[in-house]
Design a protein that fits this description.
The protein is of the alpha/beta class. It has two domains: 103 residues, Aspartate Aminotransferase, domain 1 (Alpha-Beta Complex); 226 residues, Type I PLP-dependent aspartate aminotransferase-like (Major domain) (Aspartate Aminotransferase, domain 2, 3-Layer(aba) Sandwich), CATH 3.40.640.10. It contains twelve helices and eleven strands. It has a seven-stranded mixed β-sheet, with helices on both faces. The chain has a two-stranded parallel ribbon with strand order 1-10. Strands 9-11 form a two-stranded antiparallel sheet. Helix 1 packs antiparallel against helix 9 and helix 10 runs parallel beside helix 12. The radius of gyration is 21 Å and the shape is globular. The relative contact order is 0.19. It binds pyridoxal-5'-phosphate (PLP). Pyridoxal-5'-phosphate binds next to helix 3.
């Protein structure tokens, strides 16, 4: 159907048209079918998406082998993070996270006045599940554990078997919020989604998913929560109602049906990753094994300086992620954008600037 190129050619980046490798967006643009669906939805957007919302829930339920009562549609997964933290917040509730992870969880937990327990990481920022377990066991009240898998900014997967064993052990008064925003990019066969645990009836897990990444729909704001029907009822008290963006819902429905685009989205990300890994190898920059649409790599200079050198060439790369000093998160753009970026990095190296 849609013939899409393996490697694109790009115009030379400029101030008006930079290469954006700073927000883990999907540079491909949406599926052409999703674009058409969104555009035609504009003409109906004076109405609420009453008919389409249940269709999207059904499509997602089918995708996960569950029934629609297990699904709550949200405005991106951000709303899922916020509402699920809200649903379990209260007195004597700690929010447990690894020391290096996606910041929204901590930000929302702060709004709800939860004490934050940060678990120090192992080598290469790996999750220390034994320390997580100890922090939860020692806490006298409730624990909300927020795990991003694969993690952001590290791009690595969590020790899945250990996490699943921990969830199955049902630690007292503990809810696991598992954010799988990047799961569709994973190549490592050791990765496992926790959706199967929800299917098996575990009610101590909330799984968060998004259309922002593999579906390339970040600006249309569609995500969803997957959890037991009781947990969905609880969380739904903290969203503004399932009144989603009409264009987003229609685009998401079309995108779910576009297996060709989803495969293409994954393949081009794999190609972009290879291009980036090759230049990082060549320049001797250490990086973590990426299972996502971004790479976390070490740099030899100050991050602000590194960012500026690239920005001067109209390439935006990731921000600082304390406590990871002298690391940079670079999002994977199109293969053409990565070839361009790789050449800029080579050039900067030849000038001894990086
Ligand atoms: N979760 C993770 C791990 C993310 O990296 C992001 C965005 O970068 C989000 C959630 C939020 O994305 P959205 O609200 O667009 O689904």
């Amino acid at each position: 159907t849609n013939v899409l190129p393996a490697v694109d050619t790009i115009a030379t980046p400029s101030l008006e048209n930079p290469v954006r490798l700073n927000f883990n967006e999907n540079a491909l643009g949406m599926s052409p079918n999703a674009q058409k669906a969104a555009i035609s939805a504009v003409n109906k957007a004076n109405r609420y998406a009453k008919a389409e919302i249940p269709l999207l829930s059904q499509s997602l339920a089918k995708h996960h082998n569950l029934s629609p009562e297990y699904i709550l549609l949200t405005a991106g997964s951000s709303e899922g993070i916020r509402s699920s933290i809200a649903a379990w917040s209260g007195e004597n509730t700690q929010f447990v996270i690894p020391e290096l992870t996606y910041g929204d969880g901590e930000q929302f937990a702060n709004i709800f006045n939860l004490p934050i327990t940060k678990i120090p990481s192992l080598k290469d920022w790996a999750f220390d599940i034994d320390s997580f377990r100890a922090a939860v066991d020692q806490y006298p009240g409730r624990s909300i554990v927020y795990l991003v898998n694969p993690n952001n900014p590290t791009s690595t997967i969590a020790p899945t078997a250990q996490i699943i064993e921990w969830i199955r052990s049902k630690p007292k008064d503990t809810i696991f919020i598992v954010d799988e925003a990047y799961a569709e990019f994973v190549n490592d066969p050791n990765f496992q989604s926790v959706d199967t645990l929800i299917e098996q009836g575990y009610d101590n897990i909330v799984l968060l998913k998004t259309f922002s990444k593999i579906h390339a729909m970040a600006g249309l704001r569609v995500g969803y929560v997957l959890a037991s029907p009781n947990n969905i009822k609880n969380i739904s008290q903290f969203v503004a109602g399932e009144k989603l963006n009409y264009c987003g819902v229609c685009a998401a429905l079309a995108s779910m049906e576009d297996a060709d685009f989803l495969a293409y989205s994954k393949q081009t990300t794999d190609t972009s990753r290879q291009i980036m890994e090759q230049v990082l190898d060549e320049l001797g920059f250490y990086y973590l094994p990426s299972q996502t649409n971004f790479i976390f790599h070490q740099i030899g200079t100050d991050l602000a300086q590194y960012q500026q050198l690239l920005q001067d060439k109209h390439i935006f790369v990731g921000r600082a992620f304390p406590p990871a000093d002298r690391w940079n998160r670079i999002s994977l753009g199109t293969p053409g954008e990565m070839l361009y970026t790789a050449n800029v990095l080579r050039q900067l190296r030849s000038q001894n600037l990086i």
